[in-house]
Amino acid sequence: MSALAVEGLVKRYGSVEALKGVDLEVGEGELFGLLGPNGAGKSTLVKISVGLVRATKGRAEVAGARAGSRAARAKIGYLAELFRFPGWYTADEVLILHQRLAGSPGGAAERNRLLELVALADARDRRVSDMSKGMQQRLGVAQALVGSPRMLLLDEPTSALDPAGRRIVREVLENLRDEGVSVLLNSHLLSEIELVCDRVAILRAGEVVAAGSPAELSRPRGVELETGEGTRTIDGATREDVPRLVAEAVAAGRQVFGARVLTSTLEDTYLEAVGDEVS
Amino acid sequence: MTAVLTIVGYGFREALRRKVFTVVLVLTAIFLVLIWIASHFVFEHLSGLNAHGFIDARSFAGSTLLGLTMFGTLFLGVVLSIFLTLGVVNGDAERGLLQPLVVRPVGRSTLLLSRFLGAAGVAVAYVFVVYGCGLAIIDMTGSWLPTSKLAPGVELAGGVVVVVAISLLGSIVLSSTANGIAVFMLFGAGLVSGLLGSIGHALNSDTVERIATITAWALPFEALYQDALHIVSSGASGFTGAVLQLGPFGGSFVHGWDVRVWAVGYLLVALGLALLAFSRRDL
């Protein structure tokens, strides 16, 4: 059973069609990345999956339960793109609140573990109003993990984090994958997606325009051969062509100094997929 | 049940943290001091009021002062109710406070009803405390208490609970500022219609009284307030009672079990609409 299954999902806000029949599937223990420019429909897709927004048409299920139903909500952890916790709560109290709402029996042990996981153990008794934006975002990640959800949906979880904070979240995500937790990660940071995600979907204007593993999306572009006569690019050539190309150059009396397989990066694929839309 | 108590507690804590709560407490203290001063001097000069012997001056003064206290209590209670609820849905959603709570398994209806219970609990407690203080002040300064002491307070509390429900419903369809203004204007309209009703009753104008009655039924917090005033003034007999009912705190044009039952129905409908609207609201 898929952790998240979305089929023919359509969402209209008045005359604006935010999603135009999206199909998507996140497997058990899979780390799935969502990419796309602003207004592509990424947040709408996540919000439908957690029950914050109602789909106009189509189907969204979390572990077999209708998205937004009580059963589905019991299985998810969610961090919104724009969120806030009451400023007068301490980090520990925020987690206590969510433990009670999630019905988590984890108690103090769970809270301690989560605060340590996001490097906030020393800020346990600090009020949210006294925390930096990055600390609040890490607390948001901890909050999403309350009750050990089987499916985690994170909407721009690292937007306010410095590089050290991003690394912490990245490590958390990798650990979760090892534990079999599925993650849907919505982010603008291509490098982040490329580093941690098993599969990626690129959305543009409410449609999935590219999908696959980062490796699949980073397809070969050719081979660059450096000889005594200069550097030459052989378009369309792959890694398998390198020995033949080198042998041919040597047979032709040229000195070969190096050969490099060229691949397009996820960024190239992304820019190709979204065209000139500014993210 | 744990989830309900958690959200009620969350609402209580939020209410107590708000600056408006402190402002209302300060205003309440000033209001009660003014009531005490007024009661003290009015009862001190009662012999002058009783000169003609037509009316029971102590009952007249006590009823009027309690009516004034009830007006102030309702006004401050409504201010508190509106500020506790004006942004419960749209306001909190815009600030990003609501989404992390809504995705939890508790469900939207539990969340909304718990927020209602939290706000209504604070508002009802406030009304009872202020009304009780008002009664105590009038008793201490003038040795007068109405025949029915509890019922008027219950009706006032019912009135603010209706306002809480209206404001909660408004918070789903309007922005915080628009909702606050709209509910406060409704409250103002209710007060004006109440005064209009009293004038209509005094002048024996059926049309004016009918307009006021329709408005009071449309805004049952006003009907409950009028009913509470009526309970207080109806304790006075004879000419005193008649004079009281002609005044602004007589509550003579709408009262009885009809409006009480209607207010309960109105409250349930308002809450039902709020639940329906919230269940369909994209966040």
What does this structure look like?
The complex is a heterodimer of chains A (279) and B (283). Chain A has 279 residues and is α/β, with parallel strands linked by helices. Chain A has two domains: 4-215, Rossmann fold (3-Layer(aba) Sandwich), CATH 3.40.50; 220-263, Ubiquitin-like (UB roll), CATH 3.10.20. Chain A is built from ten helices and 13 strands. Chain A has helices at 42-50, 70-73, 91-102, 107-117, 133-144, 163-178, 190-196, 214-217, 242-251, 266-274; strands spanning 4-13, 16-26, 31-35, 57-62, 65-66, 76-79, 151-155, 182-186, 199-204, 207-212, 220-227, 230-235, 256-263. With 283 residues, chain B is an all-alpha fold. Chain B has one domain (2-279). Chain B is built from 13 helices and no strands. The radius of gyration of chain B is 20 Å and the shape is globular. Chain A binds chain B through residues 13, 47, 50-54, 70, 73-74, 76, 78-80, 82-86, 88, 97-98, 100-103, 140, 143, and chain B through 2-3, 6-7, 10, 13-14, 17, 95-97, 99-107, 280, 282-283.
